[in-house]
Fold each of these.
Amino acid sequence: MKNDRKTVNETAEFLKNRTGTQPTIGFFSGTGLGTAVSFFEPEARLDYREIPNFPQATVTSHTGRMLFGQAHGQRVVAMEGRFHLYEGYRPQEVAFPVRVMQALGVKTLILTNAAGGLDPSLNTGDILVIADHINLTGENPLVGPNEDAWGLRFPPMTAAYDRDLGRLAFRAGAALGVSLKTGVYAGLKGPSLETPAEIRFLKTIGAAAVGFSTVPEVIAAVHGGMRVLGLSIITNMNDPDHPVPATLEEVLDVGGRVTPLLSDIVGGVLSRLETAS
Ligand code: HPA
């Protein structure tokens, strides 16, 4: 699959023509957090299969949809279903929708995910504002020739997650009576879950949460000059001294229960965007 500017622009043109809209806000929802997009009413829905040059769904993953609509006066494009490295996608494929969003004019990217908690002050069901990440995927979507029109060859990652957006998330949470947490997200390739020794290592290097998504998209978004907000739902706790296998059921169950609140927080961030920027 090609990931050059010509291919990306072709896809963006198709979407502009089909939807007649140019969103400024992009949104990715995490596994099992499909209804996290309920903060807005989609006006157009496009199956990934209908979108030229979009990564092909693997046998293990269902095809998703790209949703276009408005929320709190902002034009939004949302991904219902994302691509993961553990499914076999190349990092450039995982980041392809971010490039398309960039070409459409998206300036602010909001990503949600399910993550395992490492910091003992966290609890299952908490929402974590990602303060920073550690890329342990062994991959990077910027490998290969640099598209200078997209961003720098060596883009700084000193402020990958926008502090103002993080503050807005905290305020949106407070307005809903919830205290959000914050910390570093360690991004792994997966799909095998962490060994106790790996959990100990992740805690030692300063990670508060661990998951298998988000990092490739964020690297591409920051390269492309977007402001990024990342929100993790802590679906299970990882304690190296009392290792308990995390099950998909548990992840989906907790994720499903917290998703309505997460969606309200995203809505709260969007409603506060105007005044903050
Ligand atoms: N590890 C990695 N990814 C995850 C976890 C975890 O414990 N929980 C939810 N996603």
Amino acid sequence: MEDTEKIVEEAAAEAQSAQSSRALYEVKMKFLGRTGKLTALLKNMKEIAAELRPAFGKRVNAVRERLEELFAAREEHVKARELAEKLASEQVDVTMPAKRQRRGALHPITKTREELCDIFSGMGFEVFEGPEIESEYYNLTALNIPADHPARDMQDTFYITEKFLLRSQTSAGQIRLMEKKKPPIKMLSPGRVFRADDDATHAPMFHQMEGLVVDRGITLGDLQGMLDEFARTMFAETAKTRLRPSYFPFTEPSVEVDVSCTACGGKGCALCKGTGWIEVLGAGMVNRKVLENCGIDPDEYTGFAFGMGIDRIAMLKYGIRHIRSFTENDVRFLEQFRD
Ligand code: PHE
């Protein structure tokens, strides 16, 4: 009987000093668990005189109940304090100044390429991407630029081996597509191109957007109509285009296409050097020989092709003066293209 009193006192003291629910649980097990002190007392039952056993049993049960109450009360207290501490430690001060997140932006070349793809896919063009490492055949020969032809010098090409090179024009994609697909064709081919060129408006790597349409009865008028539509969507509602005769071995006739100056609208300024026009692309009717090289009958089908510099279009659209700005990775420059 005395032992039970001692156990209650001990348990009360230990519960009081338990500061966490974990510690309190251990104290509880120490007294009420299967190997706990109270359980140990019951094991002594057989040493007690038979007539005293019922009273002893009752006593132990009463003590168990008291201990359970005692632990429950302490547990409530400890848990409440733990919760308060947790809430305090996780408190958010909504009046603190926020950490600024720096947001990225699409590269102006990417933006321009996507915009061009949007405009032309709206007219029914499908995107086709050719490889950056090309064979001489696709980049030059099949485009009617035979070996030793002076036109090979028009574009200073980076050769990798005698037969392979970094493509100097996305026109190579025309051949790849026409070998696989027969008319009607409406292809758009964006990509990087490489030339041994380097000044304020020329970089050794830049981007082109090639277009190719082949079907029955396609004329130069179709080309200009489509380019007018492109210029109005890309630059300004009032933008106009002008064709000037030019020369490309893979088109006949060939034209250079100008748009009315994006800065002055055609009146003449520093950007257009007083002419009111800015050259934006090369184009023309697909040369019969090119169609033949791809197994398309030039008496049945005609087509036009165009190739524009994406970098140049982006420079005009955003008023960028140096082509180098695109590859310098200056965050101050790039940040301006956030939507
Ligand atoms: N490939 C030519 C260039 O890079 C542009 C072009 C494409 C011209 C298609 C005519 C037709 O200059």
